[in-house]
Amino acid sequence: WQELGAFSPDQISFHDYLVQVEDENWNKLTLYTDFAALQKHLEELSPVDKAAIADYIHAARKFTDLDLMALPLFKPWQLATKLLPRLPYLAKWGKTSMASFAQRFTDPFLRQAFPTLQYGLPDVPMLVHLNFLAGCFKQSLGWPKGGSLAFARNIEQRFLTLGGKVYYNSRAEKILVENNKALGVSLEDGREIRADWVISAADGHTTIYKMLDGKFTDKNLDTYYATPPENC
């Protein structure tokens, strides 16, 4: 958000914790964004799980100088120096789910609550969770004051100052394609808007099968959308 010029640091809220999980016995797990506070809290919940807790916090700290969500902005030399040396480490946590790591805890409550900490989905890779937690710790991830509308308005203002134009109440119906290249969109009211780049913010199925009439698909995509994964 800083690179986009959408928000200044004083317009972002950084919370002390991300989520809390309670069970029927009023046991409560709080995902603090401060590593020391989180480690202390977890050890208070289950002193016998200190080894697994220490490994968890150590892994999160490893992500404080590597933001995976910023990878598309990396230059080749950054990928070589920052990413490549860590591939084995990233592979380890990419293969470990929240649910599988939770099995390292002996405490029944931690085993039950921990898998729900990231989006409530037990199968989310630890890689995603650790990267997210590290971003909150170093305050590169936060919540815009005023919510999503304020965030969108700030991006709009930045876009307009750069010479962009926004069309409101203009539903895109089709993506215009010539020689296998997207050249713009046609709107429901019949207007056509040409562009050098066309980026769809619609869901994949609408984009592929409605806006592009299913002309640019393959067997894997067809199979995927015919049998969506569970928890989708």
Which features would summarize this protein structure in a list?
10 helices; elongated; alpha+beta; disordered N terminus; two-stranded antiparallel sheet; 3-stranded antiparallel sheet; 41% helix; single chain; 14% strand; 232 residues
Catalogue the unreliable spans: 1-5
General shape:
elongated
Query: Which structural class is indicated by helix and strand composition?
Result: alpha+beta
Largest sheet: number of strands, sense, barrel closure: 3 strands, antiparallel
Please give the radius of gyration in angstroms: 22 Å
Topology order in helix (H) and strand (E) letters: EEEHHHHHHHEHEEEHH
Strand order of the largest sheet: 5-6-7
Overview of this structure, please?
The protein has 232 residues and is of the alpha+beta class. Helix content is 41%, strand content 14%. The protein has helices at 35-45, 50-62, 76-83, 87-95, 98-102, 108-113, 126-137, 147-161, 204-211, 219-226; strands at residues 12-13, 17-22, 28-32, 143-144, 172-178, 181-187, 192-194. The strands form three sheets. A three-stranded antiparallel β-sheet has the order 5-6-7, covered by helices on one side. The longest helix has 15 residues, at 147-161. It is elongated and about 65 Å long. Residues 1-5 have low confidence and may be disordered.
Set down the secondary structure blueprint.
Blueprint: E1 12-13, E2 17-22, E3 28-32, H1 35-45, H2 50-62, H3 76-83, H4 87-95, H5 98-102, H6 108-113, H7 126-137, E4 143-144, H8 147-161, E5 172-178, E6 181-187, E7 192-194, H9 204-211, H10 219-226
Antiparallel strand pairs: 1-4, 2-3, 5-6, 6-7
